Amino acid sequence: MPATPCRGNPAGATALAGCGRPGRTNGLPSPCGRTRIGFGERLYVPSLPIASELLAFTAIGLIARWGEVFPRWVAYPGGRQAPRWAAVVPAAVGATVLTLVFTVLFIVTGIRGTTIRGDELPADFPGEAGGWESAWFSLCYAPLVLWGPLMVVLTVAYHQRRRGTDRPAATA
Q1: DSSP code for 26
Q2: What distance in Å separates the CA atoms of residue 57 and residue 157, rounded to the nearest whole number?
Q3: Cβ–Cβ contacts within 10 Å for residue 53, how many?
């Protein structure tokens, strides 16, 4: 298969716009026809933000009313109180995974000066550049690093708020 010129490939425009520097692809395979992108990669790119948004939306359930009482439109449990464990257990597992993957891994790789694969960071890596590039990188990456610990806070607060609500009311 002949190489596709970047001007004829929409993905080439994103490669040219990478990190504000023309032609910079951060060591990734070039979408300009030099490397074939498999089906898994084509599926991964759009599914990652969708999955992230769905997970973020479930975190809202820890503070919204529908996280405590099933909505009326839900067939069987509609209008009934949601069991506390049904929210606390998945939220705790998710918070743990997020903290380990994004927070701990970010700190460890930053200290070691390596990528998550163990390769040495390139000299033009945004966090290593210094100055405004390093500050901008940290500012943009901070929400991802804080996502896990903030989920821990939400989970604990939800658990504390709902602590006495799982027991049926005592009748006299």
Answers
A1: T
A2: 17
A3: 10
Q: Which residue has the tokens 């049926």?
A: 168
Q: At what angle do helices 84-98 and 131-161 cross, to 10 degrees?
A: 160
Report the distance separating Cα 91 and Cα 160, nearest Å.
Answer: 14
Give the residue among 38, 18, 39, 13 at the shortest CA–CA distance from 28: 18
CA–CA gap between residue 124 and residue 162 (Å, rounded): 49
Q: Which of the pair, 14 or 121, is modelled with greater confidence?
A: 121
State the Cα–Cα distance between residues 69 and 71, nearest whole angstrom.
Answer: 6
The amino acid that residue 142 corresponds to is A
Which parts of 35-83 fold into alpha helices (H)?
39-60
Inter-residue contact 94 to 55 (CB < 8 Å)? yes
- pLDDT (tens digit per residue) in 134-166: 788 888 888 889 999 999 999 999 999 988 766
pTM of the model: 0.62
Q: What is the DSSP string of 75-136?
A: TTTTTSBPPHHHHHHHHHHHHHHHIIIIIIHHHHHHHHTB-TTSPBPPTT-GGGS-HHHHHH
Tokens for 20? 């504000």
